[in-house]
Amino acid sequence: MNKVIIDGNSLTIEDVVNVARNGYFVELSDEAKERVKKARNLVDKFVEDEKVEYGITTGFGKFADVVISKEDAKKLQRNLIVSHACAVGNEFDTEIVRAIMLLRANALAKGYSGVRLSTLQMLVDMLNRKVHPVIYEKGSLGASGDLAPLSHMVLVMIGEGEAYYNGERLSGKEALHKAGMEPIELVEKEGLALINGTQVMTAIGALAVYDAMNLLKASDIIAAMTVEALRGITDAYYHRVHEVRPQKGQLKCAKNLLKLLEGSSLTTRQGQLRVQDAYTLRCIPQIHGASKDALEYVKKVIEIEINSATDNPLIFEDEMKVVSGGNFHGQPVALAMDFLGIAMSEIANVSERRIERLVNYQLNDLPAFLTKNGGLNSGFMIAQYTAASLVSENKVLAHPASVDSIPSSANQEDHVSMGTIAARKARNIIYNVSRVLGIEYLAAAQAIDFRGNAKLGNGTEVAYKLIRKEVEHLDEDRIMYIDINKASKIVDSGLLVKEVEKAIGKLE
């Protein structure tokens, strides 16, 4: 059985993907179980001693100064969940819901949150038995954690809300019952521990980073095909050009391009056909490389966040101490997600400009709009429109969410991150990028066909053959969205990168 063992400290982005998308089984490590028990023992002691501690024996937010009696402590936790379940909009995809549940469980497994082991185990069991709460996308400010959407997750744990089980949408209680589980009653600190964290924005972010890593490699492959189709000059990728400006991503991209194009009879040398190419060909390493560097930064932020304790207050059992802090504030993730959105928008931006160079007969020596009988056929004319539309939409989506803040909780929570909005926008941008790259992939293959039976590069030949297995050459106009969807699926599924790397080795 494929499984991931969580201990609060060693989860990887690949683990998140395997649980979220591939249904891997999840287990708690023995060390994590012990830490959770010890932290809970301290919470129980404070409750018994009626010590005033935020979120344990007090209200929340602006009500932090309201002391709650021992008799009302359990009701306080339930009230917290039902009152905070205010998310609206579309439902999150199942893969995001699963990633959210995994990350919340991993954060609790660190042993700083004070939940009972049985409560944490229930969250893990829901994952393993595929009880997927209905969680709505909108409603988080990204500080005080992702309170509203996470509350929808917890509703199911207490037998409320809704969930999917075996593809059927049911009440939370019924979904648990069919999975052989019973609702729980939350005790002191548990409601707050379950919803006060950055797990929604981080779950979206982890999957977005994984997808972006694939798309950046795919963009190098597809750009290399366009270089061949336009008989581009490879001198611009010469290693010494990039070594004198040693930006890491730039160096990686230039190396990738030469590796992909090695053996090609279509590429040219400086002065052979022209002295210089346009920027969209000549500057691929500089443009793609900058996005690669941005992604490296974002990836590090997410790798830290998925193994962090982000609720409040935190239980330091070894010091017998409870501390109110601000780890729930999503600013690190918010900035990173905005950066990711901007970086990936540029990949679509330059891809669309390469599409224009492929279809515009004034900029190349190919048939107008890559069709033999122009006028009767429109060829790739409107495919370029679609790419332009997606790029324009990305420019709107790339406006940073993190520069905004609206105070909440009667100005107690007077600066918020909007990190979940930033993460959702980045995910939408990445979808659009995959479609623009799919259109360039089709256009580059079509243009290569017009070059005759030329020898392609070692990597681009694999890419060309892969698309031609699914989509034949466009002789006459046909329904284009079908071709675009096929090409985009090859791109965003990771198949393109996988097959090319199988042939020529790992790309960077």
UniProtKB/TrEMBL annotation:
5-imidazolinone (Ala-Gly), cross-linked positions: A143-G145
**What GO MF annotations does this protein's record show?**
histidine ammonia-lyase activity
Q: Spell out which residues are annotated as carrying 2,3-didehydroalanine (Ser).
A: S144
Recite the UniProt keywords alphabetically: Cytoplasm, Histidine metabolism, Lyase
Name where it's found: Cytoplasm
Instruction: Tell me the SUPFAM superfamilies matching this sequence.
Output: L-aspartase-like
Q: In which pathway does it act?
A: Amino-acid degradation; L-histidine degradation into L-glutamate; N-formimidoyl-L-glutamate from L-histidine: step 1/3
Q: What is its EC number?
A: 4.3.1.3
Q: Quote the catalytic activity from the record.
A: L-histidine = trans-urocanate + NH4(+)
- What PANTHER family does the record point to? HISTIDINE AMMONIA-LYASE
Please give the name of this protein.
Answer: Histidine ammonia-lyase
Organism of provenance: Caloramator fervidus
